């Protein structure tokens, strides 16, 4: 029976190749778009590459409500507490970012790296393709040193040769023994080229190190253990720590807590929210595609009324006719699903390639059972939506099918309510997508006008990672090196100012904060004390960045290692902790008793890392010359093209100290602009899918009007025979269309308002420009509706009454 239905469906579809091709392409657009987006979502959010059973991996985080901090960094005692939960935690490891310089092909290459605990690779289920990973004996100060290199470094620097095992490589001019090569899909943390043991000093395990959060930490949970269970265990450990600290417990006064979050929630970072939005968008596109195909089948079912009537007269039952009809839909959906399965991941890789590198680095897209399952489900869902309306109508009409009805050439618009409902839904969804595009575009423009507190135009920046013992942990030599580089850059023709700073504003890899005390100001009970971000800078930093000085002075060349330590604070910090007094002349301390800095000035507040969100709770600036073992970022300001000074930066660094090199040379404007990469991605993808929705709506409206005007040929002929003019007929058709579009727009506007209220809490600056976004969406859809109506309306108005009535 099913085989006969299949053969009959194939014959029916082959007789109408135009209809069949249109239906398959429409199906494939919706299914393929969902498959493409889900392949990216799966690779980024659900199953990070190279991680076995990622649902069992968790990241540790700490909260300080007193300072409004929620950070993915912990102290060594925090991890010890987590690892002690033996019934819940299978493996636990700390990690800390580091980097090395290696001489490769005669040039110094910078390698992002990670210092990791001995269980790091076991925790992620990562196995080397050559050699081994670290042993407990190698994870101690003075052991080794050993290194595990990435697959990419193995291929690029060592030509993929197997004899790399056992070789010594010079990292920061120090020999490291290569013991393993990781498989190609393991890339955690993102972009790292090699791993070395963390080899913590025994002092790091002291309870006094509790609140020094310098490390990232991950846990592998035992099978069947939930995040909630681990967090309950950590909550008990927190209470024990507060009791141990006593009545003046810092943990209690700061509101400190530690907890875990799923790796799959943490790994995507800033790409999570854009992908969540796009996943919802492609689901709407799938609904539009389904509605379009449903409209096509409704029209086709109406043209086959005579066929169905004859078969009914010959004894065909409703289930038999319905089964054959649904077989056609399933065939089309099956072919479209197959196309989606093939094309989805391919377009997913293209989408990942189009995503800004700052968001997508380290991610991969591949076909796996989850992608196949979602693609298949999308195909079945599309078939269900497309077939349910026509099928219900067919069942309802079957008892009354007769030859007289099948010969009738006229049909009122009232009989097309279901098809009109599909078009109304298409217009509503298209209105939602167009309005969303307009709102995100307006928010992007608003964020681009946000003042970061400094002028990024004309500034070029580079980073230096100290190589060799000549500079590492040698503060006097570091100060001399920084002075030499800054002086060299400042002397370049066309450079108006040069400076060094750490961290570099808007660099996502940098930044830090700490608590401090105000000398002479005792803390109240349960007061955790002041807290802020901190930075180190040279005398011309304000000139390079064009940050206004509000009061006092900035760091001067005279502020050296053998003089009084000085600090400059920003206006936010001054207002928060000195609301009714002048902070200049007071002392602040962050290094213990006897080590304090004199506050000498106040500068304007700047944004630290994002135009979307102001995350700073105040800033303390210290003199670079008085800092202890701080890395450096160098900046220059020029009225010309800053990129033209890239080689000058490289030469200045290389000439100041042998073995040192400049990396990540980029304009400050590009860093600031990169903070909006996620918002740009949403706008670009929304515009693409809104355009696709608009095209589908155009096809849907055109198809409905063409069919309705054809069915109403007799009615139109009678009207014209009774004296109706062509412009009356045009008006009649346009009025019907505008009624459907108006209904769709009303629903679309309501959906847009609801969606806007929902998204406003998740996206900064979202919701402004609502009137213009709605106005643009409404105008666009009205124009599209009129364009889709013109040709069918013109054909209706060109009817010759005598010929039409004779044919009817």
Brief account:
With 808 residues, the protein is an alpha+beta fold. The radius of gyration is 34 Å and the shape is globular. The two termini are 38 Å apart.
How far is the N terminus from the C terminus? 38 Å
Largest sheet: 12 strands, mixed
Q: Specify the overall morphology.
A: globular
Protein structure class:
alpha+beta
Strand content: 15-25%
Count of distinct strands: 23
What's the mean pLDDT score? 81
Description:
Strands 12, 13, 14, 15, 16, 17, 18, 19, 20, 21, 22 and 23 form a twelve-stranded mixed sheet that branches. This protein is 50% helix and 17% strand. The longest helix has 37 residues, at 318-354. The chain contains 25 helices and 23 strands. α9 (272-303) runs parallel beside α13 and α9 packs antiparallel against α15. The chain is of the alpha+beta class. The model is unreliable at 401-415 (pLDDT under 50). The radius of gyration is 34 Å and the shape is globular. β19 (587-589) and β20 form a beta hairpin.
List the helices and strands and how they pair.
Layout: H1 2-15, H2 17-46, E1 57-64, E2 69-71, H3 76-83, E3 89-104, E4 107-116, H4 120-124, E5 128-131, E6 146-149, H5 151-158, E7 168-171, E8 174-182, E9 194-197, E10 216-221, H6 227-245, H7 250-254, E11 257-262, H8 263-266, H9 272-303, H10 305-313, H11 318-354, H12 357-360, H13 369-397, H14 403-407, H15 417-448, E12 459-464, H16 475-490, E13 497-502, E14 513-515, E15 517-518, E16 531-537, H17 541-545, E17 549-552, E18 566-570, H18 571-577, E19 587-589, E20 597-603, E21 619-623, E22 632-637, H19 646-656, E23 662-667, H20 668-674, H21 677-711, H22 713-721, H23 726-759, H24 770-797, H25 801-807
Parallel strand pairs: 4-9, 6-8, 16-21, 18-20
Antiparallel strand pairs: 1-2, 1-10, 1-11, 3-4, 3-10, 5-8, 6-9, 7-8, 12-22, 12-23, 13-16, 13-22, 14-16, 15-19, 17-20, 18-21, 19-20
Helix pairs in contact: 1-11, 2-9, 2-11, 2-13, 9-13, 9-15, 9-21, 11-13, 15-21, 15-23, 15-24, 16-19, 21-24, 22-25, 23-24
